[in-house]
């Protein structure tokens, strides 16, 4: 009898391992899904042998309302519910929050003004984002509300916001935590590869191998192991009036729990480690190129 039950348990375990799952988003029209993100970022830069460290904390809450379901895509009416940033540098600490705008704190007032303004996201069942619309226009109108700012400063703020949180950047930012699913059915232990373009500040390619670790009750556990590298090491981007190029590479590892019914992330822990060089192109104030070795370490927690 004991041998019979042992054989039965082994058989059931083998069947469970062999079962294939159709992973992906199964969102319901009219429902709202939340994504709360907290990031701790350490940036170490070397200026001519002198090291400077910048520590940043960025947190935000986004809400995605399913406006329509079309074939394998979801039309999502998306809003920021809150945005908070804190930056610690050798010169001191600066904090901005959509929840605490005060007189004279223009950037916090901008974050407060952007809250609950809807923009459009189209996301596929596999988590890939095919378009983000109305976000650039929304940032532009928000900055233009602040008539006390000089036109040149407004333009600089718009450019910085577009690079970090504009439509192109938002696609990559979202896909880092949503584009996690395979095209076909998979069983426990199977792996698949997802490629994502990142556009926040510098253009980079993220290639991640995901594994289906387990399925238990209403939870699915995935594990991701990724590599990040600059797309075009010779391409310059303009930052604060200076032309810069990047030669960076690193890793991104993630442990993810998703809801079995909706496919929406319940909790994810993500660690990025990137290093390389940023080069400032020679200009009127600087006769020679300046190369700046950099290290970026990011830990990110995503919940629903």
One letter per element, helices H and strands E, the order comes to HEEEEEHEEHHHEEEEEEEE
- Provide the CATH top-level class: Mainly Beta
- Give the second-level CATH assignment, the architecture: Roll
Sheet bearing the most strands, described? 13 strands, antiparallel
The name of the CATH topology is: Lipovitellin-phosvitin complex, beta-sheet shell regions
Oligomer: single chain
- Strand percentage lies at over 45%
Helix/sheet category: alpha+beta
Cα-based radius of gyration, to the nearest Å: 22 Å
Tell me the distance between the termini: 46 Å
Describe this structure in words.
The chain has 304 residues and is α+β, with helices and mostly antiparallel strands. The chain has one domain (20-303): Lipovitellin-phosvitin complex, beta-sheet shell regions (Roll). It is 21% helix and 52% strand. The protein contains five helices and 15 strands. The chain has helices at 2-18, 106-114, 135-144, 151-165, 167-178, and strands spanning 20-21, 32-47, 50-70, 73-89, 92-97, 119-124, 129-133, 186-187, 191-198, 204-216, 219-230, 237-239, 242-259, 265-280, 290-303. The strands form two sheets. Strands 2, 3, 4, 5, 6, 7, 9, 10, 11, 12, 13, 14 and 15 form a 13-stranded antiparallel beta sheet that branches. Strands 1-8 form a two-stranded antiparallel ribbon. Strand 12 and strand 13 (242-259) form a beta hairpin. Helix 3 runs antiparallel to helix 4 and helix 4 (151-165) packs parallel to helix 5 (167-178). The radius of gyration is 22 Å and the shape is globular. The protein starts with a helix and ends with a strand.
């Amino acid at each position: 009898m004991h041998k019979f039950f042992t054989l039965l348990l082994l058989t059931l375990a083998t069947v469970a391992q062999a079962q294939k799952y159709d992973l992906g988003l199964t969102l319901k029209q009219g429902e709202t899904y939340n994504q709360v993100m907290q990031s701790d970022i350490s940036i170490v830069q070397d200026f001519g042998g002198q090291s400077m460290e910048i520590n940043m904390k960025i947190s935000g809450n986004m809400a995605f309302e399913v406006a329509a379901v079309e074939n394998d895509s979801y039309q999502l009416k998306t809003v920021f519910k809150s945005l908070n940033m804190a930056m610690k540098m050798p010169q001191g600490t600066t904090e901005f929050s959509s929840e605490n705008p005060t007189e004279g704190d223009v950037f916090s007032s901008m974050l407060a003004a952007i809250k609950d303004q809807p923009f459009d996201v189209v996301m596929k069942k596999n988590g890939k984002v095919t378009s983000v619309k109305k976000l650039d226009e929304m940032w532009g109108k928000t900055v233009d509300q602040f008539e006390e700012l000089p036109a040149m400063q407004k333009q600089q703020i718009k450019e910085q916001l577009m690079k970090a949180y504009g439509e192109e950047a938002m696609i990559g930012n979202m896909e880092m935590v949503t584009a996690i699913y395979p095209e076909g059915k998979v069983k426990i232990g199977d792996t698949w590869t997802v490629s994502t373009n990142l556009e926040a500040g510098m253009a980079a390619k993220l290639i991640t191998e995901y594994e289906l670790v387990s399925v238990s009750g209403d939870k699915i556990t995935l594990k991701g192991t990724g590599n990040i590298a600059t797309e075009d090491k010779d391409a310059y981007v303009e930052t604060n009036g200076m032309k810069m190029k990047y030669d960076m590479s690193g890793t991104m590892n993630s442990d993810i729990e998703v809801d079995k019914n909706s496919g929406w992330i319940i909790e994810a822990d993500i660690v990025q480690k990137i290093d390389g060089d940023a080069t400032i192109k020679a200009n009127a104030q600087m006769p020679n190129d300046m190369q700046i070795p950099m290290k970026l370490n990011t830990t990110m927690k995503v919940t629903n």
